[in-house]
Design a protein that fits this description.
Order of helices and strands: EEHHHHHH
């Protein structure tokens, strides 16, 4: 019996799969999580730096000190990743401008970006190459 699951996001043509478990339901959840993470890392949307509309999931993960307090296993994690990356792209890679729009400090944005190797790699690849 085949239990592997492959999911396709047609608009972006992104694909994810999971086959580690013998349970099709567990594989479906893993594949869906992976697809959400890929979408968050690879697809950018417009982000208004002057009047940002921050998702409720992002606002809910603000800690007591105002920084982001979110575990990668949190269901909202891909939304938060996408929000931070969208802000950084709209700010042309300026951590300070992105942080201001997100209501965070520059160090809080940097700390979040560096906390996950996948996010850090995505940010580093988006930086302009200096000859």
């Amino acid at each position: 019996m085949e239990t592997a699951v492959r999911l396709h996001h047609r608009p972006s043509r992104l694909v994810s799969q999971a086959e580690e478990s013998r349970s099709p339901e567990v594989n479906r959840r893993r594949a869906l999580r992976r697809l959400r993470e890929r979408i968050a890392l690879e697809l950018r949307t417009q982000f208004d730096l002057e009047a940002p509309s921050l998702p409720a999931e992002f606002l809910a993960q603000r800690g007591r000190n105002g920084g982001l307090s979110v575990n990668p296993n949190n269901r909202a994690y891909p939304v938060i990743v996408a929000t931070v990356l969208d802000a950084l792209e709209s700010a042309a890679g300026s951590y300070a401008k992105a942080a201001q729009a997100l209501g965070l400090t520059t160090s809080q944005v940097l700390r979040f970006v560096r906390s996950d190797p996948h996010i850090w790699r995505t940010v580093r690849q988006a930086e302009p190459r200096v000859p």
